[in-house]
Design brief:
Helix content: 40-55%
Number of helices: 18
Largest sheet: 6 strands, mixed
CATH superfamily of the largest domain: HUPs
Distance between the termini: 52 Å
CATH topology of the largest domain: Rossmann fold
Order of helices and strands: HEHEHEHHEHHHHHEHEHHHHHEHHEEEE
Number of domains: 3
Structural class: alpha/beta
């Protein structure tokens, strides 16, 4: 499979219009590839990586990614109160989340071929006449055609005016940066099409819409999401990523391989045939998948060590504690354990630690912790277990 064919088929749900996109690719022009993100949470998970991998593939052909940081709309939050994933945030929270996201973003996408634009560049200068002009471009009937709006309208459930503005604001982003192609999950189809139509109304060439699948999370049912706690973060500890992949239902192996790796098609077909005929051991393919994903976001060596750790700690029930060395000057006796672990990249965030505490998933020398403790309570050689797969020993 050549590069163009891979871009058009693997990890792709729909391209609108497909022929137009292919034609533009063949012209060898530098395309501006738009992808926006709402910095309501600081971490990237494998669900985000599906679209980011597509961007990287196109960058490798010479095209430019334009990343829109939705810092302006993120401060509004979800006006309907329906979304846990879009809370109202302060500017400081948005800035912190965005900076963390950008660091992780460039684990996948080429920084030298990426243009970063902050939404507040243009919306910070917006006046009432700009909003009225924007809303005059579309009708209420057009927006009520969107599936989720239509369902709520027919069920007499409230829809705020602010909610109707979101697709318009996202569409205007495309006009400002003169997007050629916009990327998003299948749940963003309506918004991407609004962007295409608004560009035409503003006299620009309309963007193509590149839709990628929403991969299920580790529960195998709902889409991957931090709020649903079924995600795999790309900066999580290699052992944690490997272990989470090994825990997914067998029916997810194929879609994860297609959307998140470069594993050859014949191996994926072999897996599919074997699952249908029940004549393969799915764990063999799951190990290959886990190894590939850890290698992609960490290193080959860490992938090998994670595989070894899984075999010893899970399959052979031989729990080993990874020795973590701390310098005395790193330790502040008043600082919390979660902060120390975060600074060493052992956990991805202090909120992850809080979640593990609530789930009785943090143990100190075998005893379950009910709260975050100060580093003064930790002594040389203490062993800490974080969840099912992360075990460390503190060494001074």
């Amino acid at each position: 499979m050549n590069n163009i064919e891979k871009i058009l088929t693997r990890g792709v749900e729909e391209i609108i219009p497909r022929n137009e996109f292919i034609s533009n690719l063949n012209k060898n022009h530098n395309l501006r590839l738009k992808m926006g993100f709402d910095p309501s949470a600081p971490d990237i998970h494998l669900g985000h990586a599906v679209g980011l991998r597509k961007l990287r593939q196109l960058q490798d052909l010479g095209h430019t990614v334009v990343l829109i940081v939705a810092d302006w709309t993120a401060q509004i939050g979800d006006p309907s109160g329906r979304s846990e994933t879009r809370p109202m945030l302060t500017y400081e929270e948005v800035k912190y989340n965005a900076e963390t996201y950008l660091k992780q973003f460039f684990k996948i996408v080429n920084k030298s071929k990426t243009e970063i634009r902050w939404q507040s560049e243009w919306y910070g200068k917006f006046k009432l006449e700009n909003i009225i002009s924007l809303t005059s471009k579309f009708t209420i009937a057009q927006f009520l055609a969107r599936e989720d709006f239509a369902k709520r309208y027919n069920a007499n459930q409230p829809i705020t005016i602010t909610e109707l503005l979101y697709p318009l604001l996202q569409a205007y982003d495309s006009v400002v940066i003169n997007s050629n192609v916009e990327f998003g999950g299948t749940d963003q189809k309506f918004n991407l099409l609004v962007g295409r139509e608004l560009q035409q109304k503003e006299g620009q060439s309309p963007q193509q819409c590149f839709l990628v699948p929403l991969i299920p999370g580790t529960d195998g049912k709902r889409k991957m999401s931090k709020s649903l706690n079924n995600y795999i973060g790309i900066t999580e500890h290699p052992n944690e990523i490997y272990g989470k992949i090994m825990s997914i239902p067998d029916h997810l192996i194929e879609i994860y391989m297609r959307c998140l790796t470069d594993i050859e098609d014949h191996i994926i077909q072999e897996l599919k045939n074997g699952l249908n005929s029940n004549n393969i051991n799915p764990m063999d393919y799951k190990k290959l998948l886990a190894h590939e994903i850890v290698k992609q976001f960490h290193t080959q060596n860490e992938a090998n060590l994670s595989e070894k750790n899984f075999k010893e700690s899970v399959q052979e029930k031989n729990v080993k504690f990874e020795k973590i060395k701390f310098q005395i000057n790193e330790l502040n006796s008043k600082e919390k354990l979660s902060k120390i672990l975060f600074n060493k990249n052992i956990i991805t965030s202090t909120s992850e630690f809080k979640r593990l505490i609530k789930q009785n998933g943090v143990k100190l020398n075998g005893k379950t912790l009910s709260e975050d403790i100060s580093i003064s309570e930790i002594k040389n050689g203490y062993q800490i277990s974080l969840g099912k797969r992360k075990n460390i020993e503190i060494n001074f």
